[in-house]
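Thought: the user asked what Deaminase/reductase looks like in 3D. I have the sequence; next I should run the structure tool and report back without guessing.
Action: structure_tool
Action Input:
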Amino acid sequence: MQKPYVTIHTHTSLDGKINAMDLPEFRSASRQYQELSLDPDKQIFNIQGFLNGRITTDDNMTHYRKPEVNENAPLVPEGDFIAEGDASMYYVSIDPSGKLGWQQNYVTYGNRESHIIEVLTEQASNAYKDFLRRLGISYFIAGEETLDKALVLHKLVTLFGMERVMIGGGGTLNWTYLQNGFVDEVSIVMAPIADGDPDMQTLFMAREPISTIQPISFSLLDVRQLEDSTVWLRYKVNNS
Ligand SMILES: NC(=O)c1ccc[n+]([C@@H]2O[C@H](COP(=O)([O-])OP(=O)(O)OC[C@H]3O[C@@H](n4cnc5c(N)ncnc54)[C@H](OP(=O)(O)O)[C@@H]3O)[C@@H](O)[C@H]2O)c1
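Observation:
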């Protein structure tokens, strides 16, 4: 199996939260996070794709819309579908059973247009694949009933030529890739904010049966002070 260099890149509060807080320091950290990884004029990550969990995409991009599927669509060809093989950036959407209600084949985020790749399992329906084909959205299959995480990375290399990717969240996707030893680096843009909410999303969230609670340690690669009291931390994962 091949794999690209994988960085989990995220912006957090001091208390490890990843959801928005209505504070100028949050907005500054969010901007700097996007500039480091995506902005064509400022980025330094040199990634070709960024992976996002289904809930992150529904929260930020598709807003829980139902996909406009045709249940009577003719059978689509078996296997993967590549609508665009040479985009400069891909939004890799982890959507195992095919739920997301896309309306177009790209997202605009971080001052960048990215072609969407839907990552499905065999659980996704023919009607959903037909829906993606009609929108010109690339998709590939990774796993029968559950997501084959290694195969996802392998196909990003072999089908789309990716050498470096970023996992952009949320906490569930981050932890499942981290726990399974696929992550080369963790990059945290930490804003000087906190809210003490015990129930809010954090950077890493174990979720049975996808992943479990397990202690993992890290070694510091670099630490830099950014604008507005934001700190950028980079760690190597000790089990990778
Ligand atoms: N500050 C930041 O940098 C940042 C970045 C990203 C996200 N966020 C926030 O984080 C929140 C969402 O995080 P989340 O942890 O709830 O969800 P998530 O990681 O975005 O998505 C989880 C979903 O993705 C699919 N999935 C992910 N990994 C899988 C695996 N290994 N096997 C099978 N399916 C897998 C499943 O979809 P199904 O349920 O369809 O099976 C799962 O329920 C959002 O509110 C978002 O705004 C913040």
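Thought: the tool returned a structure. Summarizing for the user.
Final Answer: Structure for Deaminase/reductase predicted. The beta strands are 5-12, 49-53, 90-94, 106-108, 113-120, 138-141, 164-167, 185-190, 218-225, 231-237. Residues 94 and 119 are 5 Å apart (CA to CA).
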